[in-house]
Fold this protein.
Amino acid sequence: MRKIFVLIKCQLGKSYDVAARLIDEIDEAPAVDSISGDYDLIATFFVASDTDIGRFVNENVHAIPNIVDTKTIICFNAFTKDAGVSGD
């Protein structure tokens, strides 16, 4: 599995609607957080290792209404207190 984060900018007043739809409609999204700054939301996705991430974002995330802009961040390694470093 690969972890990616997608920063999401929403239409004004629509971030809660977008967050709800991401959680309800995309199984790979275990968490969506509202944030401050240039973007409104940060969504975490876990996708299969062989997933075309660009296609995944375009076909799944961009399909949600009221999203204005996104920025995708690919996680190389996850460092956790209990497990240390995790990889593919």
